[in-house]
Amino acid sequence: MLRYAIRTEIRLITAELATDLARFPALSAWSTEDLNILAGLFVNAMTVTAEAIEEAPDEETLAEIKQVAVKQLRMIALAVGGWRSKP
User: Fold this and answer.
1) Residue 86 within any structural domain of the chain
2) For residues 47 and 69, is the Cβ–Cβ distance under 8 A?
3) Domain count of the fold of the chain
4) Stretch 23-31: mean pLDDT, rounded?
5) Which domain holds residue 47?
6) From CA 15, how far away is CA 38, in angstroms rounded?
7) Which of 27, 34, 35, 65 could form a disulfide with 85 if both were Cys (CB 3.0 to 4.6 A apart)?
8) Which domain of life is it from (predicted)?
9) Is the pTM of this model over 0.70?
10) Is 55 within a domain?
11) What interhelical angle do 2-21 and 32-55 show, nearest 10?
């Protein structure tokens, strides 16, 4: 029951993010499928990061987790410019 609720919320967050991403001029011509995939990449990266932060044993590990998260999100964002979505 709890896993189902969590999955449902993650799907909702992903769908809402895809809708928000579609409002960016550079992404307005992207297909719905591609927008959902991009949103999923962001949400999945942050979900894994949130889990890691919760389990971080010390401040040094926490700082490393945050640094990796920033890099992951930057890589995703930078890759967007090279993607050619097809309707």
Assistant:
1) no
2) no
3) 1
4) 96
5) 2-80
6) 10
7) 34
8) Bacteria
9) yes
10) yes
11) 130
